[in-house]
């Protein structure tokens, strides 16, 4: 289990904030072997499919070129042929390069997403200290593991390539007496066969390395319980975060309050300053309850909703001020206001039916 510098055990998964901060620093799980494997497989497969077609076209075009020049080779025609060959190869190779470019972007996006970290490319002058960096690298466990992995990959790939070629040595020796065209075709197929097998092995290594890099990245980002507490305190203590939380809570409470206005029985108002919505359900409530209240713009909004919902609006400035100042939302009105409010409710059809 990983430990921090103080020796505390990093047993907790990294928080979303820790992961986002690491991402901003350019610290992400990424495997160069996976990218290399995908690009190598794609390149070999594209060349295997495309090169024969490209060579046939080139042969036909060269033949047409010499026919046009009456099969004579001069200084000018040789120069033209060279330029023509370069242009043809560039044009025919362009689709392969375009494919590899798109794949390179795609495989990197798959691993780390579309994100550019400016901090990762900022110049760090402390890296210019060769001795310090050498000692840091030499005694860094992570760097040693990466070095061992690189040496193992070189050994495995070299051994596998030798194994593939070694099995064909007898055939190669026998092919030396064959027609050179047959020999070139055989060698071409052999090269492509070895290349695609090596590319496939590199891809398998890349997939395994990507899984390892993700695991190692998560292990590196793990936090101690104390670090999580400190981060939570820091976020809670941030005035901006607190204000946002309070604002979100106020907005939610205001929204819930406005949804209760259409369910109220009466809205008591001071024409321009106060509005208090009262609900009294004899089957549920012990006494009339304030379900919404507001001043100025909020009071206008409550009255607007009440009118649209058919809720009775009664102007009683003293009662409106008293209710607003002494009763909170979702609280029952005090007994001292029962008589006054009862007289108002008795005038409503809804209350008379009860």
Automatic annotation (TrEMBL):
Which Pfam families does the UniProt entry name for this protein? Answer: Bac_export_2
Q: Where is the composition biased (Basic and acidic residues)?
A: 7-24
- Subcellular location, record wording: Cell membrane
Kindly list the GO CC terms recorded for this protein: plasma membrane
**What keywords tag this UniProt record?**
Bacterial flagellum biogenesis, Bacterial flagellum protein export, Cell membrane, Cell projection, Cilium, Flagellum, Membrane, Protein transport, Transmembrane, Transmembrane helix, Transport
Asked if Transmembrane is a keyword of the record, the answer is yes
Main location (coarse class): membrane
| Annotated TM spans | 32-51, 94-117, 144-163, 183-212
Role noted for this protein: Required for formation of the rod structure in the basal body of the flagellar apparatus. Together with FliI and FliH, may constitute the export apparatus of flagellin.
The protein's name in its UniProt record? Flagellar biosynthetic protein FlhB
Q: Where does this protein come from, organism-wise? A: Mucispirillum schaedleri ASF457
């Amino acid at each position: 289990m990983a430990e921090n510098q103080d020796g505390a055990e990093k047993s907790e998964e990294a928080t979303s904030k820790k992961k986002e901060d690491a991402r901003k620093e350019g610290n992400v799980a990424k495997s160069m072997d996976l990218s290399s494997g995908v690009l190598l497989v794609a390149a070999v497969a594209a060349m295997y499919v495309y090169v024969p077609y490209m060579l046939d076209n080139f042969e036909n075009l060269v033949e047409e070129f010499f026919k046009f020049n009456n099969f004579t080779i001069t200084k000018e025609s040789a120069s033209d042929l060279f330029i023509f060959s370069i242009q043809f190869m560039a044009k025919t190779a362009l689709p392969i390069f375009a494919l590899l470019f798109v794949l390179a972007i795609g495989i990197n996006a798959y691993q780390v997403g579309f994100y550019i970290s400016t901090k990762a490319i900022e110049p760090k002058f402390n890296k210019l200290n060769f001795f310090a960096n050498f000692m840091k690298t030499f005694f860094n466990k992570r760097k040693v593991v990466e070095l061992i992995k690189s040496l193992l990959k070189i050994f495995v790939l070299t051994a596998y390539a030798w194994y593939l070629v070694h099995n064909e040595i007898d055939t190669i020796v026998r092919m030396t007496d064959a027609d050179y065209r047959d020999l070139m075709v055989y060698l071409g197929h052999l090269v492509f066969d070895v290349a695609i097998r090596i590319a496939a092995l590199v891809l398998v290594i890349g997939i395994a390395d990507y899984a390892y890099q993700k695991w190692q990245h998560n292990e590196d980002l793990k936090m101690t319980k104390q670090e999580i507490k400190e981060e939570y305190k820091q976020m809670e203590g941030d005035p901006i975060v607190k204000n946002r939380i309070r604002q979100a809570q106020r907005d939610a409470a205001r929204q819930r309050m406005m949804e209760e206005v259409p369910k109220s029985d009466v809205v008591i108002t001071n024409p321009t300053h106060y509005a208090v919505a009262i609900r009294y359900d004899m089957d549920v409530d012990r006494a009339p309850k304030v379900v919404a209240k507001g001043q100025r713009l909020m009071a206008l909004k409550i009255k607007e909703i009440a009118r649209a919902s058919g809720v009775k609006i009664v102007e009683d400035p003293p009662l409106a001020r008293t209710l607003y100042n002494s009763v909170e939302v979702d609280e029952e009105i005090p007994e001292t206001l029962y008589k006054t409010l009862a007289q108002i409710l008795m005038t409503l059809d809804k209350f008379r039916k009860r």
